Predict the structure.
Amino acid sequence: MAIPSSITRFGKNEPFYLQAARGQIENHKHTFKFGFNSDINGTEETVWDAGGLYTYPSSALAMTVTTTAGTPATDNGVKVTVQGLDEDYNEVSQEVTLAGSGTATTTQTFLRVFRAFVSGSQEPTATLNITNGGTTYARIILGQNQTLMSVWTVPAGYTAYFLAGSVSLGTANINQYLTARLISRLSGGVFRTQQKVTLEGGSFQQNYEIPLEFPEKTDIEARAVSSGSNNAVSATFDIIYIKNSSVDLNNYSP
């Protein structure tokens, strides 16, 4: 049986990003975030599946996954994995299993939640909400089995490099336009606009030949607002994040 291999073993070249995706470059990680909001109107919203502006936890919280099924027991046994950052901004993940009550609560606490997905063989029969204290931090819409949220935070000890982003607009209405923003917030700071575009249908793709740099603990998000109503909007991030060096490269002499 052939052994999966890299052509670099034979002295040839292989694209850097393919090597990074295969885990062949130490301390390099990649994330692709994709969000969708089915109803953007005249008030700015985050591009995510729960609608409205996203709310970030002010402290690390346990998350409760709850089915919206009319008969919660129908989702007994559904497994859901929640991914995010802990109180120290370190990456964490936990899988929980819905009980007969249609709920499951993590023992892991999350300062940030940026993804959740159905991780078992049983599909839910209804939308799942990931909440704490009445606030929704993630949502898995029925049929998707995965959150759709253009929200991400750089883990502690890493620097993120924003390689590409996109936004697209779908609407049945004419003479409407969408304004979308890429925004970021340093730890302890406020959200700042990093890019702003307008669309009258279609899509916009930005590839950064020189990537945007975001330090550890930076929140990154896509938001949009429409001049009309009932606009479906999607947005994506393509990011590579690299573990910070213990060497001060600005003062390094080989």
Notes: The longest strand covers residues 28-40.
